[in-house]
Specification:
3 strands, 14 helices, mainly alpha, Serine Threonine Protein Phosphatase 5, Tetratricopeptide repeat, three-stranded antiparallel beta sheet
């Protein structure tokens, strides 16, 4: 009788474990990552595989696991003050000032496993946008920028195939798929553009997006910036003016036109567009417009 009771209890616990929803597993896993509880993380993943063995989420789960394992904190003690890291100041045995700080080093093998897992997930579930953004993020962080651009190019191609019908974590449908995609793509552009050697990659990236979204005001604006960077101010201004015709109320474009005219010493047109910028009511650009107008009217 006692043995039968124990079996019944074991069956009960098994039923409870197997009744966990994907959301419950996800929340528990997120907490285990936050707590850095590797044993609990392993248990949750094992439970997940038993309950939902073909779940798309497992690709994201394993990618996060591998990437977290890739990050190793290394303590540095140096006589040189670090430029970016927070640090502690101490003294060595001779009384000299030393600096102690930590940096994160990445294990290439674990990074490759995370990348591979996301690529596999994308191949099987091509409309999971979080897989695609996760892959781009990792590739950017490990400075594999060309691979990042290539992966985003495939995402843009897929956006036209699926009509921007994307899903996210736990297969939740993304509201305004195109808006989310384009906003994130613009953020990636800024990341690439701000890299010391990022301009050629950023330009090829912009051209790829415009191949599929030729009316994108943000990316047309980016393209005009490249002309300005090359010193071709007339071409940049012409492009900005064309974009302005497409989007007459866009404050970013109006500001760029005003600035171009100001650089060209065309005071009348600079004032015209700064006054137009002032009328947009944009909380960021209106103060800039007022300041520029005051300077030009001196």
């Amino acid at each position: 009788m006692k043995k039968a009771f124990l079996l019944a209890v074991a069956a009960l616990f098994c039923t409870v474990a197997l009744s966990q929803t994907r959301q419950e597993l996800y929340d528990s896993l997120a907490q285990s990552f936050q707590d850095k509880d590797s044993a609990q993380t392993a248990k949750i993943i094992a439970d997940w595989e038993k309950i939902y063995p073909k779940d798309a989420e497992l690709f994201s789960v394993y990618a996060n696991l591998y990437y977290s394992k890739a990050m190793k904190e290394v303590v540095i003690i140096s006589k040189e003050m670090p430029e970016d890291e927070e640090y502690f100041v101490g003294k060595d045995s001779l009384g000299n000032e030393i600096y102690m700080y930590s940096i994160i080093e990445l294990d290439d093998e674990m990074v490759d496993k995370a990348v591979s897992k996301l690529e596999e997930g994308i191949s099987k579930f091509p409309d999971r946008l979080d897989f695609r953004f996760g892959l781009a993020h990792i590739l950017y962080e490990v400075e594999r920028h060309q691979e990042m651009v290539n992966s985003i190019g495939k995402t843009v191609e897929r956006s036209k195939e699926n009509g921007n019908k994307w899903t996210w974590t736990l297969d939740v449908e993304v509201d305004d798929g195109e808006g989310v995609l384009m906003e994130t793509l613009q953020g990636y552009f800024q990341d690439l553009y701000n890299q010391p050697d990022g301009t050629p990659l950023a330009e090829s990236y912009v051209n790829k997006v415009l191949q599929y979204y030729p009316q994108s005001i943000e990316f047309l604006n980016d393209k005009a910036i490249f002309a300005y960077d090359r010193g071709d101010m007339d071409e940049a201004l012409n492009q900005f003016l064309k974009i302005h015709e497409m989007a007459p109320d866009d404050a970013v474009v109006i500001n760029n036109i005003a600035y171009m005219y100001q650089q060209k010493k065309d005071k009348a047109n600079a004032l015209k567009f700064y006054r137009l910028l002032e009328k947009t009511g944009d909380e960021y650009y209106v103060p800039l417009a007022k300041k520029a107008i005051a300077e030009l009217e001196k």
